[in-house]
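Batch 3, record 17
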Amino acid sequence: MKTIEHIAIFTSGGDSPGMNAALYGIVKKAEQSGIRLSGIRKGYEGLIDGDLVPLDAHKLQKMVHRGGTLLKTARSKRFLTLEGRQRALENLQKNEVDALIAIGGDGTFKGLLAFSEICDLPFLGIPGTIDNDLAGTDFTLGFDSAVNTAIENIDKIRDTAEAHNRIFLIEVMGRDCGYIAIHSGLGTGADAILIPESAHDFIQLLEKAGSYDREEAFIVIVSEGDELGAEVAAKKIKEINPDVDLRITKLGHVQRGGNASAFDRMLGIRLGAAAVEALLRGRKNVMAGILNNELSLTPFDRVVKEHQVNDELQGLLKIFGN
Amino acid sequence: MKTIEHIAIFTSGGDSPGMNAALYGIVKKAEQSGIRLSGIRKGYEGLIDGDLVPLDAHKLQKMVHRGGTLLKTARSKRFLTLEGRQRALENLQKNEVDALIAIGGDGTFKGLLAFSEICDLPFLGIPGTIDNDLAGTDFTLGFDSAVNTAIENIDKIRDTAEAHNRIFLIEVMGRDCGYIAIHSGLGTGADAILIPESAHDFIQLLEKAGSYDREEAFIVIVSEGDELGAEVAAKKIKEINPDVDLRITKLGHVQRGGNASAFDRMLGIRLGAAAVEALLRGRKNVMAGILNNELSLTPFDRVVKEHQVNDELQGLLKIFGN
Amino acid sequence: MKTIEHIAIFTSGGDSPGMNAALYGIVKKAEQSGIRLSGIRKGYEGLIDGDLVPLDAHKLQKMVHRGGTLLKTARSKRFLTLEGRQRALENLQKNEVDALIAIGGDGTFKGLLAFSEICDLPFLGIPGTIDNDLAGTDFTLGFDSAVNTAIENIDKIRDTAEAHNRIFLIEVMGRDCGYIAIHSGLGTGADAILIPESAHDFIQLLEKAGSYDREEAFIVIVSEGDELGAEVAAKKIKEINPDVDLRITKLGHVQRGGNASAFDRMLGIRLGAAAVEALLRGRKNVMAGILNNELSLTPFDRVVKEHQVNDELQGLLKIFGN
Amino acid sequence: MKTIEHIAIFTSGGDSPGMNAALYGIVKKAEQSGIRLSGIRKGYEGLIDGDLVPLDAHKLQKMVHRGGTLLKTARSKRFLTLEGRQRALENLQKNEVDALIAIGGDGTFKGLLAFSEICDLPFLGIPGTIDNDLAGTDFTLGFDSAVNTAIENIDKIRDTAEAHNRIFLIEVMGRDCGYIAIHSGLGTGADAILIPESAHDFIQLLEKAGSYDREEAFIVIVSEGDELGAEVAAKKIKEINPDVDLRITKLGHVQRGGNASAFDRMLGIRLGAAAVEALLRGRKNVMAGILNNELSLTPFDRVVKEHQVNDELQGLLKIFGN
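Prediction for the assembled complex:
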């Protein structure tokens, strides 16, 4: 195996808070190890276009807390083509890159799997997505920040909901995964939580909401991937009780931004340093994650799997709101 | 004039951060003056139903910062009827109330004007609405908090917008008044601000957005009362340039809740104390407000007017985003 | 074993964000299981004084996010005496309490161990302390919130430190444990982190700080338990370079309060529900914790041990600031 | 008068949130007016050293919210000497600067007064200090942000104070001016507020604190400029009642940093634009401020005066805590 002297890094797919912390972890560990680093701008797009830039440790030290990503990110249609991937390969060769670190979600790792067919450089992945929908890590980078943003906003909505004794249906992100909904729903004392993974007894919810005690708010957290969705749920509640005072709020993209939480800053730094170290130890085509509070490495083809809501959470859902 | 020994207070209409601070200002000033206080729950509804409760100064001292309102609030159809107002009058007489303080917006003060036809008790108003759409005060209670909530969320969205070089259309509250949009748009470095009061050169915005430099985010703040609205604006931009990466986010009811800002806590306390003092000095049927940084009292029929965006703000809009 | 029909709960020692979430987890799980609950006010003091109150699930649902503790807390000298413990026992018997849940730190669990000599009721513990200094759990309740409060404040200080190219020594809490310092130091890109567990090469720090590049801030995070402390460190830096522009800030008790973070809310709910369940399954004299992301139960005499900074963190410290 | 084609700007003295917003206001207004701008780094130090840099409108647009100052700041002993001021003059001449805008506090404006003796360029000032201790403006830039930071931290401390029924003495900034203390004390429901401007009946406070109802927290806000100070106050309370559970916390430099509040962002933009406009209209040696919610210009020699706590605030202090 060739000695690794030059690592290139990119962020890809949806951005998430903690990506800059991961970059900071990478540059500091590389600095300690005497490794040269290059950043690739805008994910696979920059790889195809040869958009490499030096990474500045001092700049990253000052933005370790910030949401977004210094390297920008993008989704790339061109990388889905062989031609795109070949141009990417040429750029890596031209720049004498010895290894690649990618921070992103399942789409990113699928891209690396496809790329590995023509490129035998070692690839290392870091799970960066707010959805917490990857196997191989208990927590993805950005999930904790997104939940914190969600609960802070839901706390605010509770104020006004209580003032009016109102029903609120609040939609949170998470794609097909109910993790953000469960964590933000439990953490805000929601009366019901609707997630894709759990066939909820909707009739029961409707009766609870439609006939609820008018002296209190009634908060329902709806995962964006839920089969029903906030609008249909609202319509059904209105059918049961047309007089209810009901509002829908979709928290939206605020959940993707903002300063990273303490947890995500630490997670990013740990995973960034671990990714460099794993490459130096000769590992390739694995994603660095945290399993059972310890660093672990999982092959790409096993991270792109369904992340089920575990039994403990299912049990909590039954107690707290479903 | 009868000596005032017992004042009843209620909050009405949409809630806004700072209402509890105003209640705190009222109870402390009343305590100092030896006045008995009652709270009326749920606005005019509680007035009609005789839902009076004692007000606890200690409890309010500990919730001076909190959004919502201890007394709850509601909109009341029954108070629009003479019968409703007569029942309200009976309750005030039965409870030997000598004066009434109402915290709310234009609907609240219109209600007081109607009520004054059959009830000659002195009424005092406090402007509680996030929209800043009342004459007679430079700032309504809750406006500053709502703008702070808006800018904190827009700052978060900027992170993710910059990561993707994305166009974001962000809708903020304000009903027919563009104040929240102007303040939150200027304060977040938005590229354009669309408000109801200003005929904006939309073509220019479209061209700016449709052909914008892909190396940066492009943030448009849209007031909910704007003639165009976020969806139509998005559609028009897409017509000019179908390839733009564009998202819409509506901040929604989070703007109504959350802890009051420092400004609104102080404003609430000042207006609350001033309202009690004005009643004790014999004033009636006026709203306490802050004009030119000084306490002022304005008759109800003059506060329910249009609040125009002044020349200075219009000038800033031209420089910063329109 | 007697069937458990009535559980009493108290919070003890220093308060920490997440205690109310744990109470919420307890009441909801007990509600589901048909168990009667009583809250004991002010920790062991209330146990001695028989200060038992009913616990209201609705009230806790609305304050699941709030710092502090609904049940109040205290340190108790009287419980250190046999007489105090005997009065506590009498109160439990008089109130027909079948089991006891205590939320607190090592002092709390030592108290339970002493109490178990005269009282054979089953005891269950929940780790509530911001210091993360207990064995038997990867995270104590309140630690994540305290670190989030610390980093938000350190982020603010960085602004002003950068504006002046200033050295800042910032003291954070943690007693004899450097966890808060490590997490908040790494998460804010600090230039150095001083903790009790690690013999730091102070000369190196002094030279780094005393001769630092005047075009940037220089941030040192000092754990309150560090052998040196912020004042001495400052003095030594000044000896090397009397002209440095240096400030000391101690974050202080803000780290104990504030709304719980998302992580602590979830942790509190999980541990609260788990504690009730463990009691119902016949477990006693153990603390519920999270080890390797799974619920675990550890006997009291093993939680009161030193919690060492693990190898991974020691390695990170070497890279990032020591 | 020479036409103004080139304006130089610097920030000086203690930094405050909103300074970047003011810079943003200046660059946008100058852009509209076709004026060339230069930034001077590190206040008067950079003026003496000729450290001029171009100002980037795009960069400022993205950091309009951020605390600190893009241009850095410093205190300068050299500018107190005639030699220093002469070198500053030479740099302005060499760079063909036609006018100067300074953002800072009273020390900054005294510097401009001294400088005007040898330099007849027009100077314009913007009040940037968290202390709100200048005449000529109702609010200085950074004051509202500092109060918001203070109240958020005091709210957190209240959580833990309530949990223990503790007395807390919390010191806030403000130099010789009690504004931050008054606003943050009233806004957090403090039990007492100690400020330099008001001879407080300390005995009364001591009795109140020393014998306070143990079922609640007792919060005292102490201005850093108060004659007594937190330590002495604590000592005196302990003399009356040695058993009180009492803590002191000094909020410190966090009050200087953090993102600017909505109010300060708007204030900065307004004052920045107004400063450029005033220069273009031929005004000189005045500070732009907000008096009675309107832009106003006040000669330097009149802003450097004592800013008294007005009668309304004195009245509130009597009601709410003294």
